[in-house]
Amino acid sequence: MASQSAQRTAPRAPRRVAIVGGNRIPFARSNGPYAKASNQDMLTAAVDGLVARHGLAGERLGEVVAGAVLKHSRDFNLTRETVLGTRLDPTTPAYDIQQACGTGLEAAILVANKIALGQVDAGIAGGVDSASDAPIAVSEGLRRTLLAANRARSAGERAKALAGLRPAHLVPAIPENVEPRTGLSMGEHMALTAAQWGITREAQDELAAASHQHLAAAYERGFFDYLVTPYLGVSRDTNLRPDSSVEKLSTLKPAFGKGDGATMTAGNSTPLTDGASAVLLASEEWAAEHRLTPLAWFVDAETAAVDYVHGHEGLLMAPAYAVPRLLARNGLTLQDFDFYEIHEAFAATVLTTLKAWEDPDFCRERLGLEAPLGSIDRSRLNVNGSSLAAGHPFAATGGRIVASLAKQLKEAGGGRGLISICAAGGQGVVAILEA
Amino acid sequence: MTKEITLDGAPDLRRIYATAALRRGNDSDTLPDVRYSRAGIRVDVDDLVAYSRVCRFPVTGALPSTYLHLVAFPLQMQVMSGDRFPLPLLGAVHVENRIEATRPVGVDEPLDVSVWAQDLRPHRRGRQVDLVSEASVRGETVWRGISTYLSRGTEHADTESSDPPSTEQLASVGAGPLWLLAEGTGRSYAAVSGDWNPIHVHALTARPLGFPTAIAHGMYSYARVLASLGPRLPASGLTSRVWFRKPVRLPSTVRLRTAFERSRTLSVLENATGEIEHAVVENSW
């Protein structure tokens, strides 16, 4: 008996996790064509497109994990409600997560880990955000007053509670893109870091122009034919400007930072965007049983966080810390990659991260490394465009990047790719894919 | 020879209802041989979203099959409000509807829609007629709807009736969604469908037409049923039928019970106690 119970508790060897496919709706600038679509609508469209493309109608998956950063309180069970509106078997479990802009990639990590451990055989990781159909809450004063009135046991008590209402209470609370502990917007935070690292306007505009040109070229060669499903009459990301150039971008006025040192504009920062994405992950066996060919393998992932509140580190610098830990664990150097997907929250974020990895002092003092990680071959960076061109519906960006990189690796006939995504709250999520 | 009339825009339903009270129908037992069409109709995304919210469809970019009924509805009213149309428009009751959804239709596809009346025939309680609507995209028929309207009048007791399928198999289905339909449900649906028939709007406008309260639009109840069954039904090759039984008086609490078979569902929408059958819906593929 003892040996049997020992058998039962023996850990199983982890399994390889396949990225089988991905689907997203085209991303659209906020208050545009998706202005009235809800998070649930868009996530349903993204998941149903994935289901249709991979013949999963009626299939019970191990789980669906997704989230939204801007979420209505009524959407507490957003992902499960979405599953019930798709063609997946309604007995497919689901749960919501939220890790700011890291949500989509974190969802993929969670599903991948369960597959690796043999807890599920296949699952969908997704994310969605609408900056248009955003939740608006009643003011804190009105909320407290209404709760007090609700607690009241008599009409008199209720009247007394409601008498506390002030005109100012009627002003609604609208979500802000501001760090609660610093009161600074993400752009203002980034502007501080960019100035500290001496990131130039020209370098940022070059990166932004390249993002647009790469994304446009990827659409032209049909790269997104199996990754994007048109939605509400939109077939390409509406933020994409194929004719973007450094010259055009250089005419824009700074949007963040102050004075002559202000380098960040609306052109080299991501716009508020609506959109959704979903990625299908599975064990090798499940993929084979369903006659689906994996695009790539989900190898490993790491998350990091930085202490940004009192200025010890830049808000969006956490990936700079996560990547070396991931490299060390996998016995890799920064140069061992064929493709790099560094999320372009701002052009300056990408440039600062790259510069930090090249900086001996930063790598020694902050990362505890004897030598800097070094430079990367910039021709391998965001080869099919990234968030500056596609837009950035917060929780949907991870799924966009995982699916695009997996397809790129497949197209290249194999290779290794690195994903790096920064997130609000001073966090970073990074991962390695291989094909 | 069928008279083909192509309209540039949707007929104004308010004008049709405003003048409908003056038309009493006639004794003719033939239907005017006329077909109304509109070409290249573009669905407005905002309208679709508003409709989807009221009927609880997700906005996936494909048109709910009942939404195409809405697109064709003004043409139906145009046919039925014609001078030579034998049945009076006001007081006509939607008793049955059939939808054949060949394939999903995207919100950005241009629609050509034709509507005509056929099969004027006796009903136990009067006369009934079928309004046939056909939607096509670039020459391909993608959707067909047949709406059967009854006009109460001379009774024809010996007429064979088109009864819904037996709901006996639903006896074992104990549970299903329960919906609270508010007093203003008819106005909400009128706002997104344009169907401001006074029997749906308010008790005060419904009473002169013989209803003690406003009643829910049949196509609203039917749409709610299809939205609820939505992902369990195929997107292509679906035939959906509804038999409208007793009207849903507003406000009301209704319950949906459904039996699922391999290539068929059978549902009944009834009041909360199960004593009143409001609609029977059968989907097959």
List the helices and strands and how they pair.
The complex is a heterodimer of chains A (435) and B (285).
Chain A: H1 2-9, E1 17-24, E2 28-29, H2 39-53, E3 63-66, H3 78-84, E4 94-96, H4 103-116, E5 122-129, H5 140-151, H6 155-163, H7 186-196, H8 201-220, H9 246-249, E6 254-256, E7 264-265, E8 273-283, H10 284-289, E9 296-305, H11 318-330, E10 339-342, H12 347-358, H13 360-366, H14 387-390, H15 397-411, E11 416-423, E12 427-434
Parallel strand pairs in A: 3-4, 3-5, 10-11
Antiparallel strand pairs in A: 1-8, 1-9, 2-8, 5-8, 6-7, 9-12, 11-12
Helix pairs in contact in A: 2-3, 4-15, 5-6, 7-12
Chain B: E1 3-7, H1 13-20, E2 34-41, H2 45-55, H3 65-80, E3 93-101, E4 111-123, E5 126-137, E6 140-152, E7 178-181, H4 185-193, H5 198-201, H6 203-206, H7 218-229, E8 238-244, E9 252-261, E10 264-271, E11 277-284
Parallel strand pairs in B: 1-2
Antiparallel strand pairs in B: 2-4, 3-6, 3-8, 4-5, 5-6, 7-9, 8-11, 9-10, 10-11
Helix pairs in contact in B: 2-4
